[in-house]
Structures are given as structure tokens and as C-alpha cells.
Specification:
8-stranded antiparallel beta sheet; globular; 2 domains; 5-stranded antiparallel beta sheet; 419 residues; 43% strand; mainly beta; 8% helix; 2 helices; single chain; Beta-galactosidase, Chain A, domain 5; Immunoglobulin-like
Length: 419
């Protein structure tokens, strides 16, 4: 055989073997992960997570995750968050009626480039979007009321708009009946501080307000985008020096919707701590906490309310609930959200504030988880207090069975098992 041909064959065989070895080295299995399906029939695609530090020290760029179905392996987008430990996050698809689990393979390999949700930050707002689709906007700059309206109604640190997956606005701000209503926001109404009461909700009285202080962090990825902000609950009484009474660390995570989904998830974590050596006692009052002033398109005839306990718009106000479903017609479509309270929240299941059907004759809609509706809550200096909520934002009509399943996945998500 010609020497040059023989040399070429040797080099070719070596290249093939080396390539095969390289490929094998980049698809080396690390472990198998199993996720039990708690409620496969009514379940929605939901996020799960597991500590990565207990499995491998490899970084996210050196890992691949695939779902295993027989001999078939389907790549699964994942995201790693870094805190006290590294957590790996991904979405689990619902199963069929007889499916008990889903199986995944974590392997050493080159992580593929994936589309990510985006955070757009300017000097007024922060917007989370998926491609060209807006999902949620946070107002960090102070927004003033319309010209001619008392400037006491100015506020920062709220969400508006919250968009449905198909782009309809589900929130409203500065309505003429309540200029202090700001989309989705979290003030306290009747607070005992230094021997006097302060109202951080009804800001026209100029006794108190809640304002954006600074951004702590921002992150985006193929599974979620998240930002963390510091809010200050400020005492602003006349002839008294302004004072921050409560610090609130808000973490807002927006999970990226699958292209085939008509829903997405927003998680809220509110961590509160006294800003001085004085307690911050939230006194019982009929509304306070996480409020949602809904779109002006909703009224008593084209929208509905249903709580986890089967209460409706007629009788939900003042009752306690694990979740509350609000949905209705908007822009010739149908959309809504399920508001969910986490089991460790103060006074869970939480009391609801739901406006009556005859509100302003039209039946305008307002929904509020109000943990202090029927009891005081004393926040002591040196301690941290946490409230967690989830919104399932959707288009179409949401069945109560799916709302219940979504809450179960929030309250007690499936545990990822390492095999």
C-alpha cells in the first residue's frame, strides 16, 4: 500500500476514535433524577428544583439535562441559581392518568445555547419579557397622579401592567375612585408605631408611604427571570422628621412560559424587618397586604371570583382561602390569575378582601390577601418575617381543579429523587 495512503488512513482512524472519545466524554452520565407526579390529570407544567452541590461540582456550562422515556432522550432547559447553595431549576410536564413519575438524566456535556427571558431596565421601569412578549412591568421611579390631582397620591414600587400570556393588561393604576390603587402592591393600612397609628396604604393622609429604595439583584435565564428590590415603609407625618420604620426585601420571579402554554407563573417573596429598635405592629383592619386592582374592563357581569373554599364574589369577602381565582372577559378574550398563599404565611389560610358585586354600581373588581384582616401582627426588631405568594396568570378559563392542583404544586412541590 502506498505509504501516503496508509498514513492518511491511520490519521483518519485516529481522528474518528478521538472524536468518538471526545463525544463520549461530553455525554458522561452523572446521575438519574426522578420526579413523582402528585396529581397528573389536573396538573400544569410546574417548576421543580434540587440542590446541585450534593450531586456535582461541575458548573452549568458543563452539564446537560435530558428527559428519559425508554430509549428516547429529550433535552430539557434548566437554570442554576447561586445562593447559600447552588439550586438547579427546570419544568416538569404533567403526566397521563397512569403516569407516576418523570425521569431525567443529568450528564457531563456541553450545555446548549437556549433562549432566555429578558429584563429591560430603564430610568422609570423594569420589564420582564419573553421574546417580544411583555409579561410584567415594575415601576421603580416615583409616579405622580394625573395633573390636578393631589400629589400625595404619588408612589413607587408596584407592578403595572401585569399582562396575560396573550398580552391583555390585567391591572389598573390611579383609578379616579381610588387614586392610591397601584396595580399589584403590598402596603399596610393600620400600623402602631411609636405609640401612634400610621397608614401606609391610604397615602392621601400623608402619614406614611412605601417607596422603592434600590435594586439588590437581577438575573435572567431559560427558566425564569428574577429581580430583588428593597422597599422602605416610611413614616411621613406632618411636623415629624421622615423615618423608615420597616424594610421590605421583595423578590419577584417570573417563570418563562412554554411556547405551547396559555399560562405563566409569578412568585413573590416579601421579607420584612424592623428598620429601628421599635416594633412595627400591624393592627387588624379590613384590608392590607398584597392587593390587586384589576383591569377596568371587569365588572359583575363579565368576571367571576372563586376561592379554594368554594366562595364566590357574593360571599368570599372576609372568608379565609388558600387560593383565589379571578377571571373574566378582556379585549374580546378571556383571562385571569389564581392568587395563592403559601402555608407558612401569617394567618394562613389568609382572609380575603373582595369587593362586593355592587361596587360603584358596575361591580369593579379588587382582590386582596389580607393576613391582618382579623388579627394583629407584631413585628419585633431583630427578626425577619416572610410572606410568599404565587400568581398563575392565564388565558382561557381556569377550572377550579387546575387551580387546586397549581396550589398543591406551590405549597408542596414534588421532591426530586436522586437515583
Amino acid at each position: 500500500m502506498n505509504r501516503s495512503i496508509k498514513s492518511y488512513i491511520i490519521r483518519f482512524v485516529f481522528a474518528v476514535c478521538f472524536s468518538a472519545s471526545l463525544i463520549n466524554s461530553y455525554s458522561q452520565k452523572i446521575t438519574t433524577l426522578e420526579v413523582p407526579l402528585l396529581n397528573p390529570i389536573n396538573s400544569l407544567e410546574m417548576p421543580v428544583s434540587i440542590s446541585l452541590d450534593s450531586i456535582t461540582t461541575l458548573d452549568e456550562w458543563s452539564l446537560t439535562l435530558s428527559e428519559v422515556e425508554g430509549k428516547k432522550r429529550t433535552p430539557v432547559p434548566f437554570q442554576i441559581s447561586i445562593g447559600e447553595q447552588r439550586m438547579m431549576h427546570w419544568f416538569v410536564k404533567p403526566g397521563s392518568s397512569n403516569q407516576k413519575k418523570r425521569v431525567y438524566e443529568l450528564a457531563k456535556g456541553v450545555s446548549p445555547k437556549l433562549d432566555k427571558s429578558e429584563i429591560d431596565l430603564n430610568n422609570q421601569t423594569l420589564t420582564i419579557r419573553d421574546g417580544n412578549k411583555n409579561l410584567l412591568r415594575y415601576q421603580h421611579a416615583t409616579l405622580y397622579p394625573p395633573v390636578g390631582v393631589d400629589t400625595a397620591y404619588k408612589r413607587s414600587g408596584f407592578i403595572h401592567p401585569l399582562w396575560s400570556p396573550r398580552g391583555q393588561e390585567l391591572t389598573r393604576i390611579q383609578p379616579p375612585d381610588h387614586y392610591h390603587h397601584y396595580g399589584i402592591w403590598n402596603p399596610w393600612t393600620h400600623v402602631l408605631y411609636k405609640g401612634d397609628t400610621v397608614d401606609f396604604w391610604n397615602i392621601k393622609g400623608r402619614k406614611g408611604t412605601v417607596r422603592f429604595a434600590k435594586f439588590i439583584s437581577r438575573t435572567s435565564g431559560p427558566v425564569f427571570s428574577e429581580f430583588q428590590v428593597l422597599h422602605e415603609h416610611v413614616v411621613t407625618k406632618k411636623n415629624v422628621k421622615e423615618e423608615v420604620a420597616l424594610n421590605e426585601l421583595q423578590t419577584i420571579r417570573v417563570y418563562r412560559p412554554n411556547a405551547n402554554q396559555d399560562y405563566y407563573i409569578v412568585d413573590f417573596t416579601f421579607q420584612m424587618s424592623c428598620a429601628t429598635e421599635n416594633p412595627f405592629t400591624i393592627l387588624a383592619y379590613r384590608y392590607a397586604g398584597l392587593g390587586w386592582r384589576t383591569t377596568e374592563q371587569w365588572n359583575k357581569d363579565n368576571s367571576m371570583v372563586l376561592s379554594s373554599e368554594g366562595k364566590t364574589r357574593k360571599d368570599a369577602d372576609g372568608t379565609k382561602a388558600r387560593w383565589c381565582l379571578v377571571q373574566g372577559e378582556v379585549d374580546k378574550d378571556y383571562a385571569g390569575a389564581v392568587m395563592m398563599s403559601y402555608p407558612t404565611n401569617y394567618n394562613h389560610p389568609e382572609p380575603l378582601r373582595i369587593w362586593p358585586e355592587n361596587q360603584y354600581d358596575r361591580g369593579d373588581m379588587f382582590a386582596n390577601f389580607s393576613p391582618t384582616k382579623d388579627k394583629d401582627w407584631n413585628l419585633e426588631p431583630g427578626k425577619k418575617y416572610v410572606l410568599k405568594y404565587r400568581l398563575l396568570v392565564f388565558n382561557g378559563k381556569m377550572a377550579p381543579e387546575k387551580a387546586e392542583s397549581a396550589w398543591n404544586n406551590f405549597a408542596a412541590p414534588s421532591k426530586v429523587l436522586i437515583k
